[in-house]
Amino acid sequence: MDHISIRLDAIGVGTSDLAASLAFYRLLGLAFPEGAEQQPHVEAETAGGIRLMFDPDESAADQGRGRIALAFHCGDAAGVDAAYEKVTAAGHHGESKPFDAPWGQRYAVVHDPDGNQIDLFA
């Protein structure tokens, strides 16, 4: 897998109050389109090029905290498969094996040692 280029591309945030979250991050300079509060998925690119993505998540309120997911771009479909294999072979939890998602990406999900969601995609 050393020849595969993997880079942090996005951070996903599950929020129980999308409007409040977008208002907060607007205060920090992120730009969201008008009406974004009614969308099922919203994202903005930071000055550093990493996307910050928001998805409504009713369970976040039950947990009393937000949920974070890191998304790593793995170059291509083979890169997703190789990254998933490497991480799970090292004993980490594989939540979702690589699959061809309906939105057009090769996609897989693993968990880091603290249980945070790590999305692998191309």
Topology:
Layout: E1 7-15, H1 18-27, E2 42-45, E3 51-56, H2 58-63, E4 67-73, H3 77-89, E5 94-100, E6 106-111, E7 117-121
Give your account of this protein's structure.
The mean pLDDT is 86. The radius of gyration is 15 Å and the shape is elongated. With 122 residues, it is of the alpha/beta class. It has a single domain, classed as 2,3-Dihydroxybiphenyl 1,2-Dioxygenase, domain 1, CATH 3.10.180. The longest helix is centred in the C-terminal third of the chain and has 13 residues.
Which labels suit this protein?
122 residues, alpha/beta, 2,3-Dihydroxybiphenyl 1,2-Dioxygenase, domain 1, seven-stranded mixed beta sheet, 7 strands, 24% helix, 36% strand
- List the strand order in the largest sheet: 2-3-1-4-7-6-5
Amount of beta strand: 35-45%
Q: Portion of residues in helices?
A: 10-25%
What is the number of beta strands?
Answer: 7
Shape: elongated
CATH hierarchy, class: Alpha Beta
Q: Note the quaternary state here.
A: single chain
For the residues shown, what is the average pLDDT?
Answer: 86
How far apart the termini lie comes to 15 Å
Structural class: alpha/beta
Number of domains: 1
Low-confidence stretches: none
Radius of gyration over alpha carbons?
15 Å
